[in-house]
Amino acid sequence: MIKGHCLCGQIQFETTARPEASSMCHCSQCRRQSGGIWSSAHVTEDALHITGDVSWYNASPEAKRGFCATCGSFLFWKRSDEDTISFSLGAIDNPTGLKLEKHIFVAEKGDYYDIADGVTQQS
Length: 123
What we know:
The protein has one helix at residues 28-34, and strands at 2-5, 12-15, 20-25, 38-44, 49-51, 54-58, 63-68, 74-79, 84-88, 102-104, 120-121. By secondary structure, the protein is mainly β.
């Protein structure tokens, strides 16, 4: 069981499914919303149980971002044409049992840091 919550605890989530595609996103939207790199993994939407009132922001015609309106925690990312939902690895209670699989959108990364961990990078 993986459990997580926002900073203030008003939104909680859990899943018994094995999360997939653990990644760190370096795109400009994730950097702006999270203040840095956003790490996430996904499960099918029906496998993630969320309690609390998630606020959704339609960031593009293809995807929306879910966050807590009280504390501002960026918790979820959902593509409209997929049945999966990504959740923030930073919001998970340890231990996660997960390993980072890839860095994504590295072509958009900030110029103030380097990626030097040897994990696969995708433009």
